Amino acid sequence: MKGKRTDLAGAGCGIARTLQVVGDWWSLLIIRDAFNGRRRFSEFQKNLGVARNILSARLRKLVDEGIFTVEPDPQSGLSHLYVLTAKGQELGVILVALWQWGEQHCFAPGELDYAVVDKLNRQPLPPLQLVAQDGRVLEPQDFCVARRTDADQTRS
Q1: Mean pLDDT rounded to a whole number for the chain
Q2: What is the per-residue pLDDT for 149?
């Protein structure tokens, strides 16, 4: 028997609240597919092989969260399109980070047949890096989560 999912909407952590919105694999795969040009329910369903009820529930939540908008489909009066909003498009960097991590840690050399590339020149994207405000490249040991002060909040 499945346990009830914990509600993270009130958590004081940016990761927890993000996971509340897009933390299941279907949601992230739907968003990935949208970045790859899919916009119709049938396209998501066919590519993902997800049950219609699960896809419907995830799309509804993503619309409710402002990740997608629903627009009329100009090719069919009976269907509509799921279009990424600016908020949804900002998830692109998360998808690239997940891809790059997976590429490095989840595949044997030569196993992965795809790469995330720059559309303009078709070259693979360089590894994402965290950069401090002063331009330094940050390594994992160079950052942490800290309580904001009033001064920090006025700068952000």
Answers
A1: 91
A2: 80
